[in-house]
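Hey, weird one. I pasted the Pumilio RNA-binding repeat sequence into the form twice and got a warning about non-standard characters only the second time. First submission, copied straight from the form history:
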Amino acid sequence: MLQGNYVSLSKHKYGSHVVEKCISTKNGLEYAVSELLRSSELIELAKDPSGNYVIQKALEITKTSDLKFVE
């Protein structure tokens, strides 16, 4: 249900908590990170306080994950 909305949710204080929880699960991690990587708003997301937190959390979790993201 959240697919297609991870970027916009990441820009909001409470939405970013939802995305963080999704990133903490294996399936959610794959969907959320794939969407974040494909987003044309990645730079703006990195500048946003809530979005920056989501990106940092995704980086932290993907460092230890065995998932491979290929386009």
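That's the output from the first submission. The warning seems to come from a hidden character in my clipboard, not from the data itself. The chain has one domain: 5-67.
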